[in-house]
Amino acid sequence: HAKKSGRNKYQLFSAEMNAQKTQNNRLESQLNLALNADALFLDFQPRIDLATGHMVSAEALVRWHNPTQGLMQPSAFLPIAEARGLIVPIGYWVLGETCRRLQAWRREGGHIVPIAVNMSAMQLRDSLLPARVAEILAKTGLEARFLEIEVAEGSLTHLHTDASISTLVELSRMGIRITIDDFGDGRASLKQLQCFPINTINLAPCFSNCILDHQKSDAFTKALINFLKGLSFRVNAKGVETLAQLKYLEMQGCDGAQGFWLSKPLSATHFGVLLCPDRPKPQLRQLVLRHH
Ligand code: C2E
Ligand code: MG
Ligand code: MG
User: Fold this and answer.
1) Which ligand is nearest to the CA of 60?
2) In a mutational test of the pocket of ligand 1, which residue from 118, 200, 261 has the highest number of ligand atoms less than 8 Å from its CB?
């Protein structure tokens, strides 16, 4: 009896696995088509300098108009893209699109700011990365200082350290800014902080949203920010959803901030308006434009 129900369970499980596999295969082939059919697009989320309240940079975030499922967020397709190696061509598309957008805004008279592009460990393991980035910059005519490469702290541990460090060093020498994303949430070692050519540290969102009423985490956050600033990193807070959080992070010494309270990720059209010089420089809450 037990044996029979065990087998049934196994059959159920393998049927689910097959369904999942079919679904992933379909997503993979749809993604391949999307890459060549303008079905991917980017939103841009402003980052604010806390001293001036001005937008000083932004983050590019990829989205997908899926033909059967509609708008898809990165969490719904990047894991499959990663597992099937498609993250590399998607990453090059994101880099190219970011540089093309920046140049287009500049041609229209916009005062452009640097834009951060997220990179997975797999992209950093591609030894052609610096050459390809140089090619994209040359082709679009964009200066390297307008490009920021953002590596999640969690993916640092997956890097074949030597090769990836030299890739990052090469990108940094080209004038591209390097950011560690979601710091404090993964397993980066202090040694990695010392070895990698880092300009900016993005604190993991948990430092913004679980702090206000805990004295111990207050002291911890403050000490962490002081430590990072002492090493000359720019410290950017993420996931800022309330004014209270923003004021708190400012008091703790953060240099910059990003989050829904300041601005949601914006469509390229809405973001482009923020770069327009005729408009007074956007101040904190003025950035709260609704998305679409
Ligand atoms: P991330 O790099 O940590 O990006 C920030 C994510 O938090 C974005 O989600 C953004 O919409 C969301 N967010 C911003 N402010 C707030 C806030 O105040 N509260 C909350 N709860 N969320 C906020 P999104 O766009 O869904 O992206 C998710 C992740 O997907 C990104 O996390 C990044 O790791 C990855 N990703 C996005 N675009 C790319 C890309 O072009 N390439 C790669 N490799 N990864 C990407
Ligand atoms: Mg990021
Ligand atoms: Mg994240």
Assistant:
1) 1
2) 118
| Nearest partner of 102 among 117, 90, 88, judged by Cα | 117
Rounded-to-integer distance, Cα 92 and Cα 86, Å: 10
* Phi-psi map region of 232: left, alpha, beta (phi>0 left; psi -120 to 50 alpha): left
Tokens representing 265? 């990720």
Ligand 1 atom nearest to CA at 120:
44
Separation CA 90–CA 105 (nearest Å): 22
**What percentage of the chain reaches a pLDDT higher than 90?**
60
Buried/exposed code over 65-83 (b: 16+ C-beta within 10 A; e: otherwise): ebeeeeebeeeebbebbbe
Q: What is the pLDDT of residues 15-33, one digit of tens each?
A: 888 888 888 899 999 999 8
Q: Establish whether residue 79 lines the binding site of ligand 1, counting it when its CB lies within 6 angstroms of any ligand atom.
A: no
User: What is the complex's ipTM, to 2 decimals?
Assistant: 0.98
| Ligand 3 center from residue 182 Cα (angstroms) | 6
> Is residue 62 helix, strand or coil?
strand
